[in-house]
Design goal:
single chain, 68 residues, mainly alpha
Length: 68
């Protein structure tokens, strides 16, 4: 019999400070469902999510509090 191999799920290394779901949604003016989907797929990393949104050509609506 052929054995089915399930791929390993590797944990991602957190780059940058983590966003909270509400902070991410409000920064990019996203609906809760949309923000939750991206947050689940790409993790809470501020660097990863900012790069993703830049690739989607979505500028932040609310500036970073850390940058000020």
């Amino acid at each position: 019999m052929t054995q089915i191999r399930v791929p390993e799920r590797r944990a991602r290394v957190l780059r940058g400070r983590p966003y909270s779901l509400d902070e991410f949604a409000s920064k990019y003016d996203l609906r809760r469902e949309q923000a939750e989907s991206l947050f689940t797929r790409f993790g809470p990393s501020s660097i990863e999510l900012d790069l993703l949104m830049a690739a989607k050509r979505r500028a932040p609506v609310v500036p970073d509090r850390i940058a000020q």
